[in-house]
Amino acid sequence: GKRPETLYWSVMRMLDLHKDADVLVMGRGRTWKKIPDCIKTMIKERVRQGMGIIFCGTDCSEYSCNGWDDSYREIAALSGSEADPPRKFKSLRVSRDHYITCSIPFELWPAEQMRAWNHKAAGEVLVETDTGIPVCAVREYGKGRVVTLGFRMWGFLPWVSHGAFNAAYVTDCRYWESMYAFICRAVCWAAGEEKRVSVSFEERKRKEEGIGGIIAAIRGHRGSVEWWFENRFSERAGEKSVVTCDGDAELFLPV
Questions:
Q1: pLDDT digits (tens, 9 = 90+) for 2-38
Q2: Prediction pTM value
Q3: Rounded CA separation 143/2 (Å)
Q4: Least enclosed by CB within 10 Å: which of 35, 41, 129, 150?
Q5: How do residues 135-166 score in pLDDT, each as one tens digit?
């Protein structure tokens, strides 16, 4: 219920109090244009000094890109200038292997129900549409890391035309978890914490048993790890297992 101006000054107070903040996650791009210049300057200076920042979409308004001012283009990894509606697309593809995109099943996202702004990249493009529009790009700004998403957004997640609260559609295609994982990985990377713990996957067969499976290689973790299988509808198959890691470990997951 607060006025927008009050919220922006709250951001300044938060940054002033939390001088050791690792990352700032911002919503739609139109938010940037409304921020007072003194707060923009503070944010950019913090990023130059090493704080990460994530722009979760540059959805400036329903059919306008008027949030893309020069100060935004200076720091963001994606921006545009055309005041046209967001574009439709049919699929997403990874343009470059990166920590943020690792293990994210973009092929399961409801691409035809999503929209992308017609952006130009000012950094490395990680994900783009089948029509070549970049929807995720990264760059460095001083010592800080910047992640910019180019989807039309609903809060911190990509907007889907069926709506976030359409129970029937969510039941048919539960893609939300991987979208949250995508944002979480962006947060870890922007904060410079992606090298602390990593998990990679490789298909492999046990020669002695002839059983197909996936090797999950865990690096840099000490403690317990829980794992189980789910299909695209979040239906669990089999029992949950718990293993203990002491630094590095490999788990064989039979499939």
A1: 444 556 667 777 777 778 889 999 876 556 777 888 8
A2: 0.76
A3: 33
A4: 41
A5: 999 999 999 999 999 998 877 888 888 655 55
